[in-house]
Amino acid sequence: MKTGAAIARYADFWPYYLREHSRPLTRGFHYFGTICATLCLFALLATGRLWLAPIAVIMGYGPAWAAHFLVERNRPATFQHPLWSLVSDYRMAWNWIIGGLNRELAKAGIPAR
Description:
Layout: H1 10-19, H2 24-47, H3 52-72, H4 82-98, H5 101-107
Helix pairs in contact: 1-4, 2-3, 2-4
């Protein structure tokens, strides 16, 4: 499925998302960005410092997009499916944390590396 292809259901998007993140380094950049962005958002909530909002966006998307362009050499799914991509960033990170990501990758047809 190409990046521009229409995906009507999140259940179809998730395996596509994983295939677009097939390289471990790409996923690592995403984890870094997701963790940094989340910490910025928690800091924003704790302090009320609104300048942390754009920092969270930059920290979340910067590493992820760099990984797509430099490592994975594909177009970020965020451009076509922003909400599903955000949900999937957290889903992928959570699965990595709890040790379930390899199973999800295998179901999406991504060989272990």
